[in-house]
Write a structure and sequence with these properties.
Strand order of the largest sheet: 2-1-5-8-10-12-14-16-18-20
Helix content: 10-25%
Structural class: alpha/beta
Number of helices: 10
């Protein structure tokens, strides 16, 4: 059983790496929590519509036995190669210096393993590592117990990062089935600005389970644009836990594009620590066959005069299953809050399913809060109108679905990435249309 395998391999894991006493205590406590709670089940309200049972039957390797190298030409298409970017690349959970382009020139874009062990990073690690990640959620605890490798990004005060950062995780399939647990830490100083693209990609059909945790800290007036590209093979499973801490007048946008994979679960949690904060959560999900995508979001408004905007679009065909469980929590002190949540979904098949549960918990009285959820089919009148004007049915259908997704596509700030996402959507919709970008 995977749980027993993980518990029994913990000591061997710590023997292989450099561990400070503080880190050992954090890891041991996290492992204890995972041991007590185990993997989440459908009995838990937050996991009511998503079961991990079929995935956990795999005999996952916890540590890759061999280091596998890959050529850039094999993976070039997954990078945003049209423009220059910083790159932090991992192959089967192991850092690839050959594919990466890191920096310490006035900012740190490098490795988590270095940050956790080298004295020069100690102050940042002590201040931020594991401070916003949930201590209660069992899969986050499991990641913390085995946290060693991932991206470490520290942007100092008033620094505008000159090019986007790509965090890439490749699985080669050298193991029959592999469990990887990347840990990312992003600290963005006052008035600093960064754009980050994260992607997990399998390079063959062997089973992989990724249990990822990312902590993002945005200081006063910082701007963070974060893009998650999820377009993996059908044997890949991703559990993505992202925790965002925002100080006053900061703006953080997380855009999630879920197109591939077998099972994807996105846990996205925003916490406010100051006034004038703006949080944006956008998502597009286009899946078919028996794919399953679950978005679980939380925005905790704890301070006055802040905004949050959630806009999730879903298109589901065949026997695919979508879940949207969004929660806005407005504390008593958070007067003058503007919080909006929208989940719009199209079912293209009578066997496709969407489970939507938008929630508002409001304890302040001077707020503007709303949530909306729609589930329907494509507009037959609009389809008829377009076909009357000579647009073939398939293209008319694709245009309507593209228009449906367009508000989220427009939120992409990197033109080359917008073009890439548009191409993926056109491919998913099965058409070639010269969309204006």
């Amino acid at each position: 059983m995977l749980k027993e395998k993980l518990l029994s391999s913990f000591m061997a894991f710590e023997e292989k790496i450099d561990v400070t006493s503080e880190l050992h205590d954090i890891r041991t406590s996290a492992l204890k929590n995972f041991e007590n709670k185990g993997f989440p089940t459908k009995k838990e309200e937050a996991w009511k519509y998503t079961s991990l049972n079929s995935i956990l039957k795999n005999d996952f390797s916890v540590f890759p036995k061999n280091e596998t190298s890959i050529d850039f030409s094999d993976v070039k298409k997954y990078f945003l190669h049209e423009i220059d970017t910083y790159k932090v690349v991992f192959v089967d959970g192991v850092f690839s210096s050959f594919l990466s382009s890191t920096t310490h020139d006035g900012l740190d874009i490098c490795l988590m393993s270095s940050a956790l062990t080298k004295p020069k990073y100690k102050m940042v690690i002590d201040t931020y590592f594991n401070q916003i990640a949930s201590r209660e959620e069992s899969l986050t605890s499991l990641n913390t117990a085995f946290a060693n490798e991932g991206a470490y990004i520290h942007i100092p005060k008033s620094k505008v990062v000159d090019k986007p950062v790509e965090i890439m995780y490749f699985s080669t399939g050298s193991e029959a089935s592999l469990l990887v647990q990347p840990r990312n830490l992003v600290v963005v100083g006052e008035n600093a600005h960064i754009q980050i693209i994260e992607r997990h990609q399998s390079l063959n059909e062997n089973a992989v389970l990724t249990n990822s945790v990312t902590e993002i800290f945005a200081q006063k007036r910082a701007i963070v644009d974060y893009y998650k590209i999820q377009n993996d093979n059908h044997e890949a499973n991703l559990i993505d836990n992202t925790f965002v801490s925002q100080k006053q007048e900061s703006t953080v946008s997380v855009n999630t594009f879920s197109f591939g994979g077998n099972l994807t679960r996105n846990n996205l949690n925003f916490y406010h620590f100051g006034e004038g904060i703006v949080s944006r959560l956008n998502g597009i999900t286009i899946i078919g066959e028996t794919q399953h995508v679950d978005h679980y979001t939380l925005v905790q408004h704890a301070t006055p005069n802040c905004e949050s905007h959630q806009d999730y679009k879903g298109i589901f065909s065949d026997r695919s299953v979508g879940v949207f469980n969004g929660k806005i929590f407005v504390e008593k002190e958070a007067q003058k809050t503007n919080a909006f949540q929208k989940s719009n979904n199209i079912l293209l098949s009578d066997k496709a399913t969407i489970n939507a549960k938008p929630q508002l918990e409001i304890f302040a009285d001077d707020v503007k809060c709303s949530h909306g959820c729609t589930i329907g089919q494509l507009d037959e009148t609009a389809m008829f109108y377009m076909q009357q004007r000579g647009i073939p049915k398939k293209e008319a259908k694709a245009l309507l679905m593209y228009a449906f997704s367009n508000a989220v596509i427009e939120s992409i700030k990197i033109p080359e990435l917008k073009q890439r996402i548009t191409k993926i959507i056109a491919t998913k919709l099965g058409v070639k249309i010269g969309f204006e970008l």
